[in-house]
Amino acid sequence: MSKIENTADKKTTENFSAPKKGYLVEFLVGVFTIIGSVCFAYLAVNIAQIKFFNSGGKQIKAEFSNVSGLKGGAPVEIAGVQVGDVSRIELSGTSAVLTLDIMDGVQLREDDIASIRTKGIIGDRYVKIIPGNSEKMIEPGHSIGDTESAVDLEEIIGKLIHQMNK
User: Quick check: 60 and 100 in contact, CB under 8 A?
Assistant: First the structure.
């Protein structure tokens, strides 16, 4: 009986052997999918301006009476060059306190003025630092003393129209 079973086992394994097939197409599809996913993730992170690591800069605070239209992540510029960004906007009483992340190597003076400006007529808001003449520098974690709040065009037009109606 064992000889019959042995011959039967050999015939079944010979009949059911897996066909030989190359996996090149599947491999290339997998590589293409991985590369596409990595590119998509990179673009999504850059478009959303997500930061995973601290840039190593210093944080300076600035208090404004009005930050209308300014958003977190807005650039901070000196002489038209970006030197940092707005990392946080908080309400303190009736004022808004901005936390500015300033790059290492950039020194802010005690009498510098932080001003909220608009790029173009209807552009995004940003913080412009107007340099002062003081020899004393602002230490990390301290505040800029002089600030100029955002100009609210709607408020100005409303006041003008109200004055004309009197």
Answer: yes
Distance CA 67, CA 116 (A): 7
Give the integer Cα–Cα distance in Å for 34 and 36. Answer: 5
Helices (H), the chain: 2-15, 24-48, 153-164
62 and 144 in contact (C-beta within 8 Å)?
yes
Binning pLDDT at 50, 70 and 90, where does residue 161 land? confident
Phi and psi of 22, rounded to 5°?
Answer: -85, 145
Tell me how far CA of residue 13 lies from CA of 4, 8, 33, 41, in angstroms. 15, 9, 37, 47
Query: And the tokens for 15?
Result: 């009949």
Q: What predicted TM-score, i.e. pTM, was given to this entire model?
A: 0.63
Tokens 């800069």 correspond to 57
